[in-house]
Write a structure and sequence with these properties.
alpha/beta; Rossmann fold; two-stranded parallel ribbon; globular; binds NADP nicotinamide-adenine-dinucleotide phosphate
């Protein structure tokens, strides 16, 4: 198999970090982008704030087999306490940032597709886009748009670039840290899921890795719910 090159936006923490470890473990080259500069692989990293910076040109210009966009948010509040600014901020980081990354990386993804190696994009939604959950209005709006973006791009970029979305439920990462501060909180969160557990970063990374690779060559335009059954089951 030729060398595989991936671009992981948000590879410095949580799900993205677990994904980078998996891809590198399989021998792929991985470029990461995020706001912080202190990362394990400074040579393969570009500092980028998806909410305000132009996408760094230096991160482009090389054949790319897969782009993953992970920056997002968990803003939980009753509707009366959410401002218009909150909705805009969640939309900016979850949706507009993903659009910027896709636009910048598309020539490199097309180059990989044209060389016959295959190319894929994976976006990240949330169980809250599909399942009505109280206090989740702003994140549900933003992640619903991510899922719409994923389907539209899948249609537009077929047959060359596959586009899919992964929708996790509560996952044990720094982003979810304040929801998981005690054993009691963890037990309650686990008990809400039919599988009686919460997700790990690696559970979600494994699903993303599948959607990037050749095993999913016949899959595009899908939302893969990796949520312990929360979105689909009663139990
Ligand atoms: N954890 C959960 O329970 C959960 C549930 C459902 C969905 N999700 C979704 O899963 C995705 C990944 O979340 P996670 O839990 O892995 O979170 P995380 O551990 O906080 O990681 C987020 C990553 O995004 C980067 N990032 C954040 N803001 C950025 C910005 N403005 N510009 C560029 N990069 C930025 C961070 O790096 P820097 O700090 O270096 O910028 C980090 O690498 C998110 O889209 C989230 O909404 C998570």
């Amino acid at each position: 198999m030729p060398d595989r090159n991936y671009c992981v936006v948000g590879g410095s923490s949580g799900i993205g970090r677990a994904l980078v470890a998996r891809l590198r473990g399989d021998g792929a080259s991985v470029l990461t982008l995020s706001r912080r500069s202190e990362v394990a692989n400074p040579a393969g990293h570009h500092v980028w704030d998806a909410t305000c910076d132009p996408f760094p040109e230096a991160a482009t210009g090389k054949r790319c087999n897969g782009l993953v966009y992970l920056p997002g948010s968990i803003r939980l509040a009753p509707i009366g306490r959410l401002s218009a600014r909150d909705f805009r901020d969640d939309f900016e980081i979850n949706v507009v940032g993903a659009v910027k990354a896709v636009q910048a990386m598309l020539p490199d993804l097309r180059a990989a597709a044209e060389s016959g190696e295959g190319a894929a994009i994976v976006l990240v939604s949330s169980v809250a886009a599909r399942t009505g959950l109280g206090m989740h209005a702003s994140i549900a709006v933003a992640k619903g748009a991510v899922e719409g973006l994923g389907r539209a791009l899948a249609a537009e970029l077929a047959p060359h670039v596959r586009v899919n979305v992964v929708a996790p439920s509560l996952t044990d990462t720094p982003m979810a840290g304040r929801l998981l501060t005690s054993d009691k909180q963890r037990d309650m969160a686990a008990s809400r899921h039919p599988l009686r557990t919460i997700g790990t970063a690696d559970d979600i990374a494994a699903a993303i890795e599948y959607l990037l690779g050749a095993d999913s060559r016949f899959v595009t335009g899908q939302v893969l719910n990796v949520d312990g059954g929360l979105g689909a089951l009663r139990g």
